[in-house]
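Design request, tokens follow.
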């Protein structure tokens, strides 16, 4: 091999080596650009305040959260208010979502990471973010959860560990696949889970009237103060109240809850056309009218609510009120009045809905009239035939008389 040939070979090695290095660097650069790097935002930068609609899909199930009049609502529940804090937290996590590990994957491997959109097996949970005009902002696919292995046992039991992250993909592009530290375990297209569960609260109960379709089961209790004993209206002599059975009635609706909102309620299903009616009045001037219908399964009732209030508009000064106390007392009265007005407004909004309320909410309230009374003691029953010979004669006169 002469010098000329050796020179040509060396030049070829340098050229091809340089070309290979350039191609490798180009591929790495492209990979980093498309897949991002550790700590980079998965969804990039966008204005979170422009998001006005969130759609969550998984298979054939779908959830739509829609912002209306500055309030998040659940479309599948006829626009009932959504839990603002849960929606806000979910959006904030998406906006701040960062890559902890880029994942190189091809279209054929999407099923393995459960990143296939649509129905069927190995499908992703698809989250779409849109603005008020319905324009897409971002779409993210939530795939397989990453399970933490080893270390301490899972608090949920089992040997598979527990989720400490999730595989995600943006806008259906495999090159954007990455692993993130959020598992999004509670993100499901179940409308009932996203409802605002703030309900109503009855305090300082003054009277309770429960009216059943069967009139003989109905009753009304009243009391003169919050610490006074209950009295039965129109009580009969043979109807003594049992204080132990009525003591909990004042708190019967202190913490009511509901499971779901009923869309398109039908009277033949709900039974609210012939309800059991509970009317509760408070010392603060509120009146709650609760209609309780049929059972739904074993753990819930159909129910409807209406609320009214007779609130004082002005404060009545005390008999010996000092001028220097007036300003303080007026301020306290206004603060209380404002809170009551806000409470009334929020609770009156529930009137247009029909709810599925948990059974335990009504367990202590829906008592039939006869269950409120002192149990009748068994009166002396006559001994059965033949029992007399077994009873000793304890009459002392008989004991000292001589036998005939």
């Amino acid at each position: 091999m002469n010098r000329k040939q050796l020179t040509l070979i060396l030049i070829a090695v340098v050229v091809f080596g340089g070309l290979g290095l350039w191609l490798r660097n180009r591929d790495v650069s492209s990979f980093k650009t498309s897949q991002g790097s550790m700590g980079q935002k998965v969804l990039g930068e966008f204005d979170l305040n422009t998001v006005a609609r969130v759609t969550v899909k998984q298979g054939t199930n779908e959830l739509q959260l829609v912002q209306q009049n500055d309030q998040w609502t659940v479309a599948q529940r006829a626009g009932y208010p959504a839990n603002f804090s849960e929606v806000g937290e979910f959006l904030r996590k998406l906006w701040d979502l960062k890559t902890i590990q880029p994942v190189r994957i091809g279209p054929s491997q999407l099923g393995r990471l459960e990143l296939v959109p649509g129905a069927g097996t190995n499908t992703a949970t698809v989250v779409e973010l849109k603005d008020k005009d319905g324009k897409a902002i971002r779409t993210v696919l939530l795939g397989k959860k990453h399970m933490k292995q080893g270390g301490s046992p899972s608090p949920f039991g089992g040997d598979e560990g527990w989720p400490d992250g999730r595989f995600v993909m943006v806008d259906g592009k495999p090159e954007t696949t990455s692993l993130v530290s959020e598992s999004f375990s509670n993100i499901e297209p179940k409308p009932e889970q996203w409802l605002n569960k703030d309900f109503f609260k009855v305090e300082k109960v003054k009277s309770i009237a429960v009216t059943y379709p069967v009139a003989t089961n109905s009753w009304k209790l009243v009391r003169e103060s919050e610490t006074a004993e209950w009295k039965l209206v129109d009580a009969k002599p043979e109807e003594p109240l049992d204080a132990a059975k009525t003591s909990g009635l004042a708190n019967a609706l202190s913490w009511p809850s509901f499971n779901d909102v009923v869309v398109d309620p039908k009277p033949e299903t709900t039974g609210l056309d012939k309800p059991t009616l509970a009317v509760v009045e408070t010392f603060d001037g509120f009146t709650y009218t609760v209609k309780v219908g049929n059972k739904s399964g074993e753990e819930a009732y159909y129910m409807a609510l209406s609320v009214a209030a007779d609130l004082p508009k002005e404060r009545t000064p005390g008999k010996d009120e000092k001028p220097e106390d007036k300003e303080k007392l007026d301020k306290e009265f206004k603060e209380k009045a404002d809170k009551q007005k806000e409470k009334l407004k929020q609770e009156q909004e529930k009137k247009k809905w029909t709810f599925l309320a948990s059974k335990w909410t009504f367990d202590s309230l829906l008592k039939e009239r006869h269950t409120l009374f002192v149990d009748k003691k068994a009166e002396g029953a006559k001994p059965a035939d033949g029992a007399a010979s077994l009873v000793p004669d304890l009459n002392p006169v008989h004991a000292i008389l001589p036998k005939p």
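Comment from the thread starter after seeing the answer: thanks! Residues 205-311+341-372 form one domain.
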